[in-house]
Amino acid sequence: MMNFNVNGKAYQVDVEPEMPLLWVLRDHLGLTGAKYGCGISACGSCTVLVDGAAVRACGVRAGELAGKKIVTIEGLGQDGLHRIQQAWIDHQVPQCGYCQTGLIMSVAALLAKHPKPTDADIDRDITNLCRCGTYPRVRAAIHALAGD
Amino acid sequence: MTTTQTTMKRRDFLKVSATAAGALALEFCLPVATARAAPQAGVTEVNAWIVIHPDDRVVIRIARSEMGQGTFTALAQLVAEELDCDWAKVSAEFASPNEHIRRNRIWGSMSTGGSMGVRTSQDYVRKAGASARAMLVGAAGRRWNVPAAECLADRGIVTHPPTGRKLRYGELAAEAAKIPPPQDIKLRDPKDWKIAGKPVHRLDIPDKVMGKPVFGVDVALPGMLHASIAQCPVFGGKLKNVEAKDALAMRGVKNVVKQGDFVAVIADSWWRADQALQKLDIEWDEAGHGGIGNAEIDAMLRQGLDVTGLPKARETGNVDAAFADVGQVAKVIEAEYASPYLHHATMEPMTCTAWFKGDGSLEVWTSTQDGEAALHEAAAASGLPPERIEVHKMMLGGGFGRRGFPQDFVGQGVKIAKAMPGVPVKLMWSREEDMRHGYYRPASLVRMKAGLDQQGRLVALRAKAACPSILKALIPRAMRDGIDFTAVLGLADMPYTVPHQRVEYAVRNGHVPVGFWRAPGQQNGFYRECFIDELAHAAGQDPLAYRLAMLAADDKDRLILEATARAAGWGTPPPPGQHRGLAVMSGFGSFAAAVAEVSVSATGQLKVHRVVVGVDSGHVVNPDTCRAQAESNVVYGLGPVLYQEINIRNGRVVEANFNNFRLPRIAEMPKVDTVLAPTGGFWGGHGEPAILPVAPAVCNAIFATTGKRVRSLPLSHHELRRPDSA
């Protein structure tokens, strides 16, 4: 049995320590907001927060998470919509939407670190892949969140 | 503008929550097939498209699929426009494929491709809205015993102005449903639109930003198992032998399914299934294709170009006579252009969940561009009659043509679940399987020959294209006299007024599967518009002026090219260090043009700073989603210019994942300025047209910057650094 702290709740799950966090979340905890896109930490569709840092859930193993606080898209807005999610609606960011939960989690980590990110900060930290090309709206929404 | 929460009833039962003890608790209620048979009390289907609740909520049924393009919202807007309901009370749901076939295909086409979602169903969905509106007004007239003509409908309320009486749609729906639909339906003039034509918020976005389980891969069912698949890496090959002993002994593994060209492992989580899959010892029969690589494919296409007497896609004037006559043709320019196979790379890999139920029925959940085709695929794979199968259409994590034709992943999902009767099984492909088992954009080779007169005008043009035919591979009955129209798009229908033209096509289908990749035929835009640029340069003329001289005054290509060039400031100095290139190309019912602004550094590094995209689609149903589609087309068009390619070695695909089939990131995304210039009178698409001019505009800008003519893509094979800057 392994212990996880996800979205403020304690879970005990019988999984191997080698299992990537993504599959613990998706197949064992029923939290499907983090998506599988590549399995090699390239696309960022599975991004979640681990102790506040953006982490690709396909690249971190269950055994590495003891005592760590995990936040997924399902737990981002404590009471309904988080302000990033609201900005995503205001700017009509998503198209297919598949990569967007990962993008939103990456942006949450970025804004926690840089409340007023420059374009260079965005280019460096937001490396998530979006096949639909929502990038211009992602950038605009981040700047709006920063009060630019 | 309103935001409306999507009601996705079909998925509401797919709720999974985990308890603190780690056990999986499933809140499960009966799925839709039965829900539809026993509708909620007081809820009325006014017609197949429109369901009205007593509290005035309106549910609009959508037959096409939503893969990001915005059809789900745009079609709802068109229905709501004619229905005159309150948009704030509108939600949408997918029409049931099972009900569709049982009700004699009542929702028209479920196929979603070719940028056709809106343009080929706008007529009947608007009529459905107008018809329901007339029935609601008729019901009010009956209730009040006044002529319907005296009643008005607006925002979900019918009013009788002479007496001031009002009734809500929710109060009228049940009676309205009993009134025969009107015979003559007059549709609203788009200039009077109140809901359509407006940038209303998309209905699907709130659920998507919340991370709700809306996609095919998110399906969760009680006792569901997971499957990972390995398909024969050599196209056309078959499974020969599998040693599965080690895999079967692994934790959570339930079964190994062997079928014609694939083997799948079923386990209690996808990761466990995939780990076990990698432990299989598989022997494939490569069907003699194991020796084919890029060189063999290139030779196949080249041989096609050398054949004489090919089928002609266009013959205008007398090309041979023109080239032979020095009085007509003073200068001949020839060039060969090429592009590689390309993969769709939807962010959500192929997926299908299937459940053979105890009562002999089958339920399928999948991300498909065609719910009806998925149903028939499931029928063929299961041996069950279509009436016994329900397909639950999920939101697509991208489609771009991969999920329309064929429905291979549905057939596999059904065959895999068949090995576990009574148990739902969710198949998801790994990214590597997805990358290596696509239906790729055809590799192609085109030879162009132009004849210019003394003044540099283009008087004769010959184009010979050699590439695999998508239609021959997937829909052979659509071939016409040896021509696949997708293979000669932009060449056979070139708008330039050139007196002598010939376009020939060599069908060369190898063993690599080909399919509809966003804007099929778009590579011809790269060839044609870059070649025209070469001719303008040879004639010493401005690329815009050169094109305009060959376009009639009222040609819509001309109008969109002018509008786009004007918006981009063509003819004014570009930002320092940058150069511009332009292109125009039309297709999918619309007219599109682009101007790209690029710079190339001393080390040869390309930066695309801005792309101005213009689209004339006749009418615009949602300007904001149309702009989003233009942005989408720019990035989808840019990847193949920069670095995307699918290479073949030993009969199989070399690329495996996003490390070697790269997608542009936000840092590479240019600024996109979109010009929507609808000229009215026709209905064009938005999902694909804007991609057509992107590659040639960028490559023409590269020429303007470096003097280097790029005739094959991607750019990763080219050295852009100027020799003088070394």
Give a quick summary of the entry.
Chain A is an alpha+beta fold. Chain A is built from six helices and five strands. Chain A folds into two domains: 2-76, Beta-grasp domain (Ubiquitin-like (UB roll)), CATH 3.10.20; 83-145, DNA polymerase, domain 1 (Orthogonal Bundle).
Overall description:
The complex is a heterodimer of chains A (148) and B (726). Chain A has 148 residues and is an alpha+beta fold. Chain A has 6 helices and 5 strands; from the N terminus they run ββαβββααααα. Chain A folds into 2 domains: 2-76, Beta-grasp domain (Ubiquitin-like (UB roll), Roll); 83-145, Orthogonal Bundle (DNA polymerase, domain 1). Chain A has a 5-stranded mixed β-sheet with strand order 2-1-5-3-4, with helices on both faces. Chain B is of the alpha+beta class and 726 residues long. Chain B contains 20 helices and 29 strands. In chain B, strands 12-13-10-20-17-18-19 form a 7-stranded mixed β-sheet. Chain B has a 5-stranded mixed β-sheet with strand order 15-23-22-21-16. In chain B, 57% of the residues are buried. The model of chain B is unreliable at 1-38 (pLDDT under 50). Classes of the chains: A alpha+beta (148), B alpha+beta (726). Chains A and B meet through β2, α1, α3, α4 and α5 of A and β1, α7, α9 and α19 of B.
